Amino acid sequence: MLGFENQPRLLAIFPYTAEARSYISSNNFDLDAILTNPLFERVREKGKERVLSSLRDMKLGEQKLYNSEECKVELLSFIVSRMMASVIGDRFLINRLAVTEGKVAEERLNGDYSSMLVPLAREFGIDPQPWGDDYRLKFTAFLKYSSKMRSPEWKLLYQKMDHGYVVVGKLRLTRLVEQAITDYLSERLPPYTDAIRNSLRREIAEVTEALESIKKEYQRDTLGEIEPARYPPCMREILRQIQNSENVPQMGRFAIVTFLHAIGMTPEQIFEVFSSVPDFRAEKTRYQIEHITGKISSTEYSVPECSTMKSYGICHNPDTLCAQPWMKHPLTYYKQKGKKPRAASRKQQPDKPR
Ligand code: SF4
Q: Residue 317 CA: which ligand 1 atom is closest?
């Protein structure tokens, strides 16, 4: 425990800590009242704002926590936002909310709340030990959170080591704590009941509407509208096999599910695609699709790279675009096909895709 169970401001600022959970359970808050009583309208409204801000990639706003009542509203709004995410159950939304809370924590730990860095790191099992002006950590703790970071500077190979420990500065320790908070919030959601769903119906409808529009926008910005003409030959062949009721190997099914999901199809639309597979078993297929797309799991699986597709023998009918030296991924093919034709003068030498 961090020792701030009697400091409402800190409970509101770090609402995912054991202290905050203990405060909630020992104060016997009436969940039914929080969800339905007009006295808690501000809590529900703030909970919804938390979710909407994370979806719109906005900061959660500077919190004006002047008194214990405002701190309580802030803390309870966190609980409400998590319940909304749990009821809606959309992986994109859950991850955005978790990432936003993680980023806010990082800002606070780099700002006025830097004294909370080490205690918070300990709470998430990082256990930093002072090492001069830096800290040293067990490499297992380092790897647990750094493995999500893509930049090469996080590779274990490039770390300063001391007797089997990894040495990190304050900024990097803060980044690891941010990741720990993000993972924690993304992987654990509170259970919900039909009563919760019904009580929050209005707020959930508003969030769901915003979610759908942001997803469409996001998809348009990254991959454009779904266009079968842009599918790479491997995916077209797998789809042809499915449509002709041929048996598709398991890796082929995995690849097509991840691909269709990545270009914006919902699990339900993907399910429809599979309904003509010869050994189609509705419940099993639905489970697999929802698992791969992250609807019922904490992982949204990625589309396999071309090298993986090749090693499984499902890189079917590669064409001239596939033969480009930079073509490493079926989604690169899809993005490249969606680009507008270049000006005549530049046609001879296509740029590498970004
Ligand atoms: S090279 Fe890549 S994109 Fe082209 S068919 Fe093979 S796996 Fe698909």
A: 5
Count of CB atoms situated within 10 Å of the CB of 87: 23
User: Domain-by-domain residue ranges, the chain?
Assistant: 8-112+190-213, 115-185, 228-346
- Ligand 1 contacts CB of residue 314 (under 6 A): no
With a 6 A CB cut-off, is 318 part of the ligand 1 pocket? Answer: yes
Whole-number Å distance, alpha carbon 261 to ligand 1 midpoint, is 17
User: φ and ψ at 162, to 5 degrees?
Assistant: -140, 110
Query: What is the SS3 assignment for 192?
Result: coil
Query: Which residues of the chain fall short of a pLDDT of 70?
Result: 1-5, 57-66, 150, 219-225, 276-280, 298, 340-354
Ligand 1 center to residue 259 CA distance, Å?
12
Q: Report the C-alpha gap between 130 and 210 in whole angstroms.
A: 45
Report pLDDT digits (tens) over 286-342. Answer: 888 888 887 777 677 889 999 999 999 999 999 999 999 999 999 999 999 987 665
- pLDDT, tens only, 225-263: 678 889 999 999 998 888 777 778 889 999 999 999 888
Atom index in ligand 1 nearest the CA of residue 321 equals 4
| Residue 321 CA to ligand 1 centre (angstroms) | 9
Six-digit token pair at 16? 């995912």
